[in-house]
Amino acid sequence: MYKTVIIGVGGGRAHGHADAYQYVKRGRVVAVCDLMRDSMDDFADKYDVKARYTDYREMFEKEKPELAQVSTPPSVRLEVLEAAEAAGVPAVVVEKPLAIQGEDYLAIRDFAARNPKIKVAINHQLQFHPRRQHLQKLVADGAIGDIRFIEASSGMNLAYQGTHSLQAIGAFNPATPTTVFGQVSGAMGLQPNVKEHYAPDQSLAAVEYDNGVQATLRCGENAPRVPRGDAIYQHKRIAVYGMKGYIHWTMWGWETFINGAYDSGDHEYPEEDVLGQAAMTEAMFDWLEDDSAVHPLNLDRALVDFNVILALYASSLNHKVLELPYEPEADLVPKLRDALQD
């Protein structure tokens, strides 16, 4: 039985991680860590976790976990990864987004480039939702024919949900992005905030891939609304169009049109999400047991997706199509803030 610890338990996603363990067969949560003792105690009491820490380094040393699940603000992602590697923790799941701006992206890219002795995945559990798994398999098996176009969107901005949408594109089209042409607007999301998530209020991008597929990405107030989506975070969706038809997934439903036959239905997002989170966690254990079973949400793939976001920002600032990979200029996010506030 693998030992898991959870770092940063004051927010909702930590509860998602912990809830999933009712379906995780090869692991258990043995300890939690948070700077806020009261919220940590409430969380640990709810999930019957006895070991509680305010210092994750001490927790690594004493508990010796096989997996750490991290829900901290992005500003401390790298230091947690470095501390976990130094302590001999073999695997970490990091809550999205991986980074926020060019500087922290470059630091994490440098960390990955030195081949650290730790396996890292980003927590895009939507890829493992049962319905998404079914639709992804349909596309991978050629049910809609060769892919021609993809559109993905999310109701929240790029920092909160942009990498979810990009990862969804990659799940259906595991190719390499080659160019980005983007536009953004609105500076409210670039102002100081508690979660340290900074992004323009609205974004629109055209992304091309090396297999000829083109995709559009919309995040924020300009994104389509999803039926039954009461909360802003519930407006994620993706549609994939091929030569024989299309598939369409939202957080509350799905539809397919394949060879002239239409089908559709609903699903319950909370039920899908807890199962998706459990399956994503089990995939980390697969990777621990077999180096060749690389997690599909691994760090290298996440760095490619975040590079698209940085290129989107630069494209909007410079008014041109950018080739990928993009080497981010200094102070990219502050420059974006200044431009949108003018």
Helix share, percent: 25-40%
SS content category: alpha/beta
Major β-sheet annotation: 9 strands, mixed
Global outline: globular
Provide the β-strand percentage band: 25-35%
CATH architecture of the largest domain: 2-Layer Sandwich
Number of helices: 10
Oligomer state equals: single chain
CATH hierarchy, class of the largest domain: Alpha Beta
Strand order of the largest sheet: 14-13-12-11-7-10-9-8-15
Task: Characterise the protein shown here.
The chain is built from ten helices and 15 strands. It has helices at residues 12-19, 37-47, 56-63, 77-86, 102-113, 130-140, 158-172, 269-289, 299-318, 332-341; strands at 2-7, 27-33, 51-53, 67-70, 91-94, 119-122, 147-154, 177-185, 202-209, 214-220, 237-242, 245-250, 253-258, 261-266, 322-323. It has a nine-stranded mixed β-sheet. A six-stranded parallel β-sheet has the order 3-2-1-4-5-6, with helices on both faces. A hairpin with a 2-residue loop joins strand 12 (245-250) and strand 13 (253-258). Helix 5 packs antiparallel against helix 9 (299-318) and helix 9 (299-318) runs parallel beside helix 10 (332-341). The radius of gyration is 20 Å and the shape is globular. The N and C termini lie far apart (56 Å). The mean pLDDT is 96.
Q: Secondary structure elements and their pairing?
A:
Elements: E1 2-7, H1 12-19, E2 27-33, H2 37-47, E3 51-53, H3 56-63, E4 67-70, H4 77-86, E5 91-94, H5 102-113, E6 119-122, H6 130-140, E7 147-154, H7 158-172, E8 177-185, E9 202-209, E10 214-220, E11 237-242, E12 245-250, E13 253-258, E14 261-266, H8 269-289, H9 299-318, E15 322-323, H10 332-341
Parallel strand pairs: 1-2, 1-4, 2-3, 4-5, 5-6, 7-10
Antiparallel strand pairs: 7-11, 8-9, 8-15, 9-10, 11-12, 12-13, 13-14
